[in-house]
């Protein structure tokens, strides 16, 4: 039987204080029935289905609201996708119970009985997802309700969930005798300094507790017996699990990079917030991948040890990585390869589950904050309807036994490169070199070209940053030679003429660099099957509306520069239908001193006034955000025109005031003046704010400004401006300056 592909949406309903964080409406899955069709389209055999207790039963002893589940389970039957019903997913239960409630196991069993009677055909269940992890977060670390941080609460929360699992499966099997238990748990492995081996051994044994309890292994001879007894468990409670063994039909392995930890006694190497202790010894608890010179074992190692321990069928029940797109793809691909190798070694691995199919929210804070931090996955829900990413295609290929073909998969993941290490390595450092076909980036002297090079290096994307001598985009022979020499899979063209006012008098030069060159490059790339990305401008619009311009709005440029950019768009898309054309505006960023925001803050810090236009409204764009989003769209295979600018609108004077206020400077020094008084010769639109009908993939302007200020310390402010403020407005187009 081949390895099966499963999938599921992130469905955590965790409680912090009296507030519940529900992932399903956050991602929109709660409202879109056709998401099930999207999942089925991958070719999945099973779906981890959120039949979540907190969402279904509002009152203790009250009726259950089955309408939402009825509709979706019926649709799954039509699609021939079998559900694995999950009842508690990192939850503490409805408002009227919690993980420390003695009644929780029986209450959960009652709900399980009602669910099984409602859906007697469902043959696979997960009554409680990752009970040990939930007990740690709620009872030992205090992150989630009931916010306890002691061993007694941890043990009570764990035993309640495990007893609830056993009783729930009894109730389900009273309806469906052959119902399967798919028990999931995060099995992150712990390493340590030599002096902390005892602590690592304890935690590495503790991580098995949910499975050990279900399989009746926790006897007086078990290494955790005394700990459990000392932390409040009675012999009768533990004997229950010995007598009522309920081994999983599928041992579900979850493993995350952040779950693999290293305990280090070299506390002087780490920031204070990473240092704690166990009452006996102080030590740092850090992500293993950031300090261990060895490669982490991840899924293959976890599958092997679980198979050897329990001799039961296994599945990888969550694969997700909150990272850039290519790293998400590498993680999924390597997990699939690891599962296949485990199968070849004789372990009974049944399936791999693409998790968080529609992304997840706020897991960067362990879902303790409600900040809307979104991590896309197989689909990006910032588009309506959800936009499939390159992960979706990869998952489809894996599920259909098609060899994955995306070029980014040739390179190792960040967890395999030496750049993963943030602290002095423990042990000999293992690393893999970058490999694979490169991206070509034109415009080596420009802000945007250099920014792409920085991000490609950070993200592990092989690249070549080209000067005009390496490839002149307006010279067909030069372009052909460069493509033959480097054999890229895509070209990112940041080169071009950028001087808006001078273009009025130098139109032939502007036309050559922005139109002729872009068209030659697009045509050459199309003939070789090479993707191409090029950049356009908000100045293709005339400002004739008071709402943000979207991709389908008619372009009516007012100046020579805008006319060249519009013609470039037309010709590029005519020659290369799969080209990606990015319209953007008003750059600011941490890596050059000549952008508007950096120069404005420099003047204000020196106590100098700063003049800025109050009658031209734009979409300021933080360069790192632009580069990241462009790379993701390129990898996803997106084409056509996309608008990428940080969400929000501001006049130039309002932008200066925002920067001043957030930097704690005197915004009163900003002088709002008409744009005409700043020496501009080319006509500008009054309003050229960019919106998007294809997807709001960029963060807000305020978020971007906060990160800019964090990245650029006050000491880095430039000296007195050598460029007149009126010319700084041309940085809105400063993608690159040709040498």
Can you give a write-up of this model?
The chain is α/β, with parallel strands linked by helices and 739 residues long. The chain folds into two domains: 4-260 and 296-405, Alpha-Beta Barrel (TIM Barrel), CATH 3.20.20.80; 439-733, 3-Layer(aba) Sandwich (Rossmann fold), CATH 3.40.50.720. The chain is 36% helix and 17% strand. An eight-stranded parallel barrel has the order 1-4-5-6-7-9-13-14, surrounded by seven helices. The protein has a six-stranded parallel β-sheet with strand order 20-19-21-22-23-28, sandwiched between helices. Residues 721-739 have low confidence and may be disordered.
Strand percentage: 15-25%
Going across the biggest sheet, name each strand in turn.
1-4-5-6-7-9-13-14
Q: Count the helices. How many?
A: 23
CATH class of the largest domain: Alpha Beta
The CATH homologous superfamily of the largest domain is termed Glycosidases
How many beta strands in the DSSP annotation? 30
- Gross morphology is elongated
The CATH topology of the largest domain is what?
TIM Barrel
């Amino acid at each position: 039987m081949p390895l099966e592909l499963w999938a599921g949406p992130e469905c955590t309903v965790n409680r912090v204080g009296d507030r519940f964080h529900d992932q399903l409406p956050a991602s929109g899955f709660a409202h879109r029935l056709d998401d099930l069709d999207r999942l089925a389209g991958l070719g999945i055999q099973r779906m981890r289905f959120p039949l979540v207790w907190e969402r279904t039963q509002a009152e203790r002893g009250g009726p259950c609201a089955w309408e939402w589940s009825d509709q979706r389970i019926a649709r799954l039957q039509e699609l021939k996708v079998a559900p694995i019903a999950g009842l508690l997913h990192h939850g503490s239960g409805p408002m009227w119970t919690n993980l420390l409630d003695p009644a929780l196991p029986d209450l959960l069993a009652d709900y399980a009985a009602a669910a099984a009677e409602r859906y007697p055909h469902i043959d696979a269940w997960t009554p409680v997802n990752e009970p040990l992890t939930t007990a740690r977060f709620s009872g030992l670390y205090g992150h989630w309700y009931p916010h306890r941080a002691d061993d007694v609460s941890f043990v009570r929360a764990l035993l309640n969930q495990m007893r609830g699992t056993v009783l729930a499966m009894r109730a389900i099997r009273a309806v469906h005798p052959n119902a399967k238990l798919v028990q999931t748990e995060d099995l992150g492995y712990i390493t340590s300094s030599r002096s902390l081996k005892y602590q690592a051994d304890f935690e590495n044994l503790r991580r098995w507790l949910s499975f050990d309890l279900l399989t009746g292994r926790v006897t007086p001879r078990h290494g955790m017996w005394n700990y459990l007894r000392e932390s409040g468990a009675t012999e009768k409670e533990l004997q229950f699990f010995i007598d009522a063994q309920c081994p999983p039909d599928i041992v579900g392995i979850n493993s995350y990079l952040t779950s693999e930890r290293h305990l280090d006694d070299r506390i002087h190497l780490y920031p204070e917030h990473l240092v704690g202790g166990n009452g006996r010894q102080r030590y740092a608890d850090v992500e293993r991948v950031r300090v261990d010179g060895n490669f982490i074992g991840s899924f293959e190692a976890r599958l092997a040890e679980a198979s050897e321990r329990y001799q039961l069928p296994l599945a990888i029940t969550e694969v997700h990585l909150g990272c850039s797109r290519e790293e998400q793809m590498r993680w999924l691909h390597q997990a699939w390869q690891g599962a296949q190798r485990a199968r070849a070694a004789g372990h009974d691995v049944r399936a791999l589950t693409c998790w968080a199919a529609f992304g997840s929210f706020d897991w960067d804070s362990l879902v303790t904050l409600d900040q809307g931090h979104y991590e896309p996955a197989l689909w990006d829900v910032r588009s309506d309807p959800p936009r499939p990413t390159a992960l979706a295609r990869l998952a489809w290929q894996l599920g259909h036994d098609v060899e994955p073909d995306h070029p980014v998969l040739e390179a190792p993941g960040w967890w395999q490169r030496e750049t993963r290490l943030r602290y002095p390595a423990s042990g000999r450092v293992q690393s893999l070199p970058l490999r694979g076909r490169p991206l070509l980036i034109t415009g080596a002297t420009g802000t945007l070209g250099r920014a792409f090079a920085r991000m490609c290096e950070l993200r592990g994307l092989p690249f070549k940053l080209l000067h005009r001598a390496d490839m002149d985009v307006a010279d067909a022979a030069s372009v052909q030679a460069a493509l033959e020499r480097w054999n890229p899979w895509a070209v990112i063209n940041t080169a071009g003429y950028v001087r808006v006012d001078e273009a009025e008098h130098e139109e032939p030069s502007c036309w050559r660099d922005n139109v002729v060159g872009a068209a030659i490059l697009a045509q050459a790339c199309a003939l070789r099957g090479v993707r191409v990305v090029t950049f356009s401008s908000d100045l293709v619009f005339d400002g004739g509306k008071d709402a943000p311009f979207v991709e389908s709005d008619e372009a009516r440029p007012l100046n020579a520069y805008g006319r060249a950019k519009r013609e470039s768009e037309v010709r590029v898309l005519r020659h290369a239908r799969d080209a990606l054309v990015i319209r953007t505006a008003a750059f600011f960023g941490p890596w050059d001193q000549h952008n508007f925001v950096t120069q404005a803050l420099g003047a204000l810090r020196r106590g100098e006034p700063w003049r800025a236009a109050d009658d031209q409204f734009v979409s300021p764009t933080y360069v790192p955000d632009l580069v990241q989003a462009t790379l993701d769209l390129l990898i996803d295979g997106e084409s056509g025109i996309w608008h990428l600018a940080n969400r929000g609108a501001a006049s130039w004077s309002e932008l200066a005031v925002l920067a001043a206020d957030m930097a704690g400077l005197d915004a009163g020094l900003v002088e709002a003046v008409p744009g005409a008084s700043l020496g501009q010769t080319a006509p500008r639109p009054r309003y050229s704010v960019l919106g998007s009908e294809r997807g709001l993939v960029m963060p807000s302007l305020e978020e971007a400004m906060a990160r800019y200020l964090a990245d650029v310390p006050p000491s880095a402010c430039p000296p007195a401006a050598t460029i007149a403020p009126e010319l700084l407005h041309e940085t809105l187009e400063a993608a690159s300056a040709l040498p």
